[in-house]
Amino acid sequence: MYIVDFNPIAVQIGPVAIRWYALAYLAGFLGGLYYLRALVRFKSLPVTPQHLEEFLTYAIVGVLLGGRLGFVLFYDLQYYMQYPLHVFYLWNGGMSFHGGLTGIILGILLFAYNKKLNPFMVGDLIAVAGPIGLFLGRITNFINGELWGRITTHPFGMVFPHAGPEPRHPSQLYEAGLEGLVLFTILWFMAFRTDALKHPGRLGGVFLSGYAIFRFAVEFVREPDAQLGFLYAGATMGQLLCLPMLAFGIWVFLRSFRQDRSS
Q1: Could you tell me the residue ranges of all domains in the chain?
Q2: Cα torsion for 152, 154, 158, 159, to the nearest 10°?
């Protein structure tokens, strides 16, 4: 039985502490940028490296603002209504993937409008790079010993000190594998080995649907948020938020085929 007890601070320089979270976000954004540069060159897409660098600002703002506001609204609104200034205490944690996704979708729409690009094509590119950040984020959740799984008797159960002495599913690693590695591999194959990028929305639809399915499944072994518990029909908030995401992803995916027939 393994005890997960890492230091959430990666580097301490005097009073300045650099957390694994900050490094994960930085590596995710920069890693995605360099990966997309290679993809754009390989596929000769109507997007330049300068476009990608300019979009990075949209992505950072969208993910951070959307992720924070999503957490506040979906996961702990009552608390933040009592302590509104705590909304700005980002160092205390509290980010929502679905909120960050909403923020980055708005960023894609705004960026595509300003640059006169197809927003579904831009969305496909961001979708291909998305699993990089997801993988790093889930590994950081594991290092921080947070968002742990439910109690298990299986031999691969791990003890998270903040969750008590019982062994639990390392659900962060399940999500890192599915939302990160598996989804990255699927999208890499579609982007580099097929003509999916010629059909705007196809990769974005696979990303949205794939994430929703993987996250919904892992939520069955992930401990629900203490302040929310189980919600409608025994589902968690994460599962409920995945349902509209799945529906939207299927619509985006099917739309790419309808566009083919109409072109």
Answers
A1: 2-262
A2: 50
Cβ-contact 33, 52 below 8 angstroms: yes
The reply to whether the predicted model has a pTM over 0.85 is: yes
| 2-3/158-159 β-pairing | parallel
Highest averaged pLDDT of the listed ranges 63-77, 90-104, 167-181: 167-181
Among candidates 192, 188, 90, 197, which has minimal Cα distance to 135?
A: 188
Structure tokens at 206: 């696979």
Count helices and strands (H / E) in the chain. Answer: 9, 4
pLDDT of 261: 58
Please choose, from the candidates 123, 115, 120, the residue with its C-alpha nearest in 3D space to the C-alpha of residue 62: 123
The CA dihedral of 54, 57, 59, 64, to the nearest 10 degrees, is 180
With CA atoms as reference, report the closest residue to 193 among 136, 256, 133, 128. Answer: 128
Helix (H) or strand (E) holding 11: strand 9-13
Tell me whether residue 63 is exposed, middle or buried, using C-beta atoms within 10 angstroms of its C-beta: 0 to 12, 13 to 18, 19 or more. buried
Section 1-8 average pLDDT: 86
Q: What is the mean pLDDT of residues 194-216?
A: 96
Interacting residues of 166 by C-beta distance below 8 A, sequence separation 6+: 151, 159
- For the ranges 18-22, 135-139, 174-178, the lowest mean pLDDT is seen at 18-22
